[in-house]
Amino acid sequence: MPRTPALHGMPAHRVVLTLSLLLGLQPITTDLYLPALPGLTQDLGASMAQAQLTLTALLLAFGLSQLVWGPLSDRFGRRPVLLAGMLAYLLASVASALSPSMDWLIFWRMLQGIAMGAGVMCARAIVRDLYTPGQGATVMSKGLSGLGVLACASAPLGGALTALWGWHAALLALAAFGACTLALIAWRFEETLVQKNPQALQIATVLTTWAAILRNRHFVAFSALSLSTYGGLFTYLAASSFVYIRVLDWSATRYGLAMLFNSLMYLLGTFACRRLVPRFGVRRSLALAGLFSLLGGASMALLALAGVLAGWAIMLPMGLFIFAHGIHQPCGQSGAVAPFPQAAGAASAMNGFLMMLAAFATGQWLGTHMDGSVFPLVQSLFFWSVLVAVSAWTLVPRDANN
């Protein structure tokens, strides 16, 4: 049973709501402004490489910041880190919407990424604070289902706001979400870390902890899985708006609906995770999901090579990949943190950093290879789908169900 009642008075539904909002910071911050990306690139007179930096710089800052937020949360607790992070996120969101140039937008998006790191890192650590390792994947899947609902709304809302009032409105919507999340943390969230670690910020302790984390086979296996599946997702996030809107000549609203379809597939994947894991265990569930990932990447590549250049040839294979992503991420994120009950913040931070490092590398590659065709997106997704399958089939330990 969950250990929540023994630790504090927060009801289970409030824990899930908190997890949903904190984990949802990531898709809200990326997906909601994607329909606005081509427009703001043109409006600010920016290059394609600069446009990609609004995503890659945000995600690199997001990944690096978690390496700091993690030890801070192990030392002082989750609540103060969340309050500081969400306040910074709110301020950075307002400033990004008022940016007069692409350089300023990139700067504020970097600060937004730093602040976002506090929320997402703490969400993973909170699950480890409150639940046993065997329950972690199920609980994380509930929080990620909430993320899926937010992701479903993000792209269509971003497309509608962009069509009605321009890209400034889409970015201001992020400030509204940040304000709501900050209010929940300030008034309804209770500290989940029972025993703070007074040595967590000492350099020797930090280095020793990171070394132990990186040597742990469970961490390596589940982090390889989570970073590979996120690399595929980021490929789609970074390239899809240009492919659909510029290459296939779709409207921003129609693109938002395509993103809605993929978000729904992700949501279905998180529901499937909660059914598969209790019945088949983590390892077999991930092996099946790895097959779905590979089928999605391979079918998209084959359709593109056959000259089928249509929206459905991108959207449907990506839907299969994202369905599997909804299984991989709950298991991957909870599995990476599970061996470290006394250093959940640090383990969560390292897992998040590695995912964002993969995203940054993907964004840099896309920024130099986007050529007005679908092939950079297709090639990158196929690459990540192969890595997902290999990780799921060969790296996940046989005792991962324990």
Topology:
Layout lengths: L3 H4 L4 H20 L5 H7 L4 H29 L1 H20 L4 H29 L2 H33 L1 H22 L14 H13 L1 H31 L4 H54 L5 H27 L6 H26 L5 H21 L7
Helix pairs in contact: 2-6, 2-7, 2-8, 4-5, 4-6, 4-13, 5-6, 5-8, 6-13, 7-8, 7-11, 7-12, 10-12, 10-13, 10-14, 11-12, 11-14
Question: Can you walk me through this structure?
Answer:
The chain has 402 residues and is mostly helical. The protein has a single domain, classed as MFS general substrate transporter like domains (Growth Hormone, Chain: A). 84% of the residues lie in helices and 0% in strands. It contains 14 helices and no strands. It has helices spanning 4-7, 12-31, 37-43, 48-76, 78-97, 102-130, 133-165, 167-188, 203-215, 217-247, 252-305, 311-337, 344-369, 375-395. Helix 4 runs antiparallel to helix 13, helix 7 crosses helix 11 (252-305) and helix 11 packs across helix 12. It starts with a helix and ends in a 7-residue tail after the last helix.
List keywords for this structure.
single chain; mainly alpha; 84% helix
* Structural class computed from helices and strand pairing: mainly alpha
Which CATH class applies here?
Mainly Alpha
Find the CATH topology. Answer: Growth Hormone, Chain: A
Order of helices and strands: HHHHHHHHHHHHHH
Helix content: over 70%
Q: What portion of residues belong to β-strands? A: under 5%
Spell out the CATH superfamily: MFS general substrate transporter like domains
Largest sheet: none
Helical run tally? 14
Sum up the overall morphology in one term. Answer: globular
* Mean pLDDT score: 85
* Spans where pLDDT lies below 50 across 5 or more residues: 1-7
CATH architecture: Up-down Bundle
